[in-house]
Specification:
Radius of gyration: 25 Å
Number of strands: 21
Strand content: 25-35%
Oligomer: single chain
CATH superfamily of the largest domain: Chloramphenicol acetyltransferase-like domain
Low-confidence stretches: 81-137, 187-192
CATH class of the largest domain: Alpha Beta
CATH topology of the largest domain: Chloramphenicol Acetyltransferase
Number of domains: 2
Number of helices: 9
Helix content: 25-40%
Structural class: alpha+beta
CATH architecture of the largest domain: 2-Layer Sandwich
Mean pLDDT: 81
Distance between the termini: 61 Å
């Protein structure tokens, strides 16, 4: 019995992914759960398992293709169909996917808290007012598409869906927004101008955006026009902290971590979040409410060959410096290898971006919604400072705090940055394990 294998719902608003590698050929015999191909989303690398046992009759995609939910991937001549789970059970999310782990082991993603391509995220209630919905019509769109439409002020009933069954994807919302911008119907942003033919002035090369770069571009394009962004610049004297860090670098290294300045900033940010909880909140503009979080999860931006990835360290307040150093080292390595799981990229309250290792004297990091703030670290420098009635060489760390001015006032932003500086300047001793 021939059956077409299609790309199922990936969850978390993911509608497309790239084919990294195809691991089978036409005529191959495969068993249920054997890996057919590797897929790359904007967040993780996924191994795609066969839902059935059988023989590969046709392969409808090739390496490098971008595939959409509902697209036909393979045609399979099924074997022993009577012993397999019904399709309805698969669609209900009971079929575990496999993802790559750091040590190469393959485990069911559901057991690891990672992405299962057969699980479907529950539908989010439409943000459209009841009177604006077409009567008797259910708009087929996932949470990501609805959220993007709400943020851009777009009526989903006017968007044409291109996915299976007319389902509306984030790309559909973006395309509709571009049409509105070009026609001048969408306010709050400049019209999208068509680019000229650059080849008329000299040689050019065109390369498609990677899945990750596309997602970054979409997120920043969405965030920039809707967040009134302000940046507060500050400095911290980390002379004594650096001395203590140098004394303990080797100890932490033996434990498997790197004791970077970011580790200490993580703890300093937690102290500031506890003192000023509005920085640990998210704004629900539609209900005019602030959601205050009682946990402390902090994302750390990692520079990778594929682009910026922000894994999240959970419950930072409950972990020691050594634990944070080890976890940050492991997450950074996984991010660079594109082996970080979706769960490790979700749930952050605020982010830290450290560009000091590259250089620069300061920068304005952009807030990543639904966060309301982000901390940026620049390269430290030795400067002469008048201290204790004499000029002393001191190691100064320049840093910045960008924030959503709808939630945070300038005075509180100064208090927040001063609290971070105070924590970094007054570490008297390192309780590495406490």
């Amino acid at each position: 019995m021939s059956e077409e294998i299609v790309l199922p719902e990936l969850g978390d608003g993911i509608e497309t992914c790239d084919v990294v590698n195809i691991l089978v050929s036409k005529g191959d015999e495969v068993t249920k759960d054997s890996v057919l191909m590797e897929l790359e989303t904007d967040k993780a690398l996924i191994e795609f398992p066969s839902p059935h046992t059988g023989k590969i009759e046709s392969i409808h995609i090739k390496k490098g293709d971008t595939v959409k939910v509902g697209q036909i991937l393979f045609t399979l001549d099924k074997r022993d169909a009577s012993s397999e789970k019904p399709e309805a059970e698969i669609q209900e999310g009971k079929k575990p996917a496999r993802t790559k782990t750091l040590n190469g082991d393959k485990k069911p993603a559901d057991e690891e808290g990672q992405l299962s391509p057969f699980s479907e995220e529950p539908e989010e209630q439409s943000s459209l007012p009841v009177e604006e919905k077409p009567a008797g019509k259910l708009i087929p769109a996932g949470p990501a598409a609805r959220r993007l439409a709400r943020d851009l002020g777009i009526d989903l009933s006017m968007v044409k869906g291109t996915a299976r069954g007319g389902r509306i994807t984030p790309d559909d919302v973006t395309a509709h927004a571009k049409q509105l911008l070009q026609s001048g119907s969408l306010s709050g942003a400049p019209a999208v101008e068509e680019l000229p033919d650059f080849s008329q002035w000299g040689p050019i090369e065109t390369k498609p955006l990677s899945s990750l770069r596309r997602k970054v571009a979409e997120n920043l394009s969405s965030a920039w026009p809707r967040i009134p962004l302000v940046t507060q610049f500050d400095e911290a004297d980390i002379t004594e902290l650096e001395k203590m860090r140098d004394k303990n670098i080797e100890y932490v290294k033996q434990k498997g971590g790197k004791l970077t300045i970011t580790v200490f900033v993580l703890k300093a940010v937690v102290a500031a979040l506890k003192a000023l909880p509005q920085f640990n909140a998210s704004l629900n503009f539609s209900t005019k409410e602030l959601i205050y979080k009682k946990y402390f999860n902090i994302g750390v931006a990692v520079d990778t060959p594929s682009g910026l990835i922000v894994p999240v360290l959970k419950n930072v307040d409950q972990k020691s410096f050594t634990e944070l150093a080890i976890e940050l080292t492991e997450l950074s390595e996984k991010a660079r290898d594109r082996k970080v799981s979706l769960e490790e990229l979700r749930g952050g309250n605020i982010s830290i971006s450290n560009l000091g290792g590259i250089g620069g004297t300061g920068f304005t990091p952009l807030v990543n919604p639904p966060d309301v703030a982000v901390v940026g670290l620049s390269r430290n420098k030795q400067v002469p400072v008048w201290k204790n009635n004499e000029v002393q060489p001191r190691l100064i760390l320049p840093f910045s705090v960008s924030y959503d001015h709808r939630v945070i006032d300038g005075a509180d932003a100064v208090r927040f940055s001063r609290l971070i500086a105070h924590e970094l300047e007054t570490y008297q001793e390192l309780l590495l394990e406490g």
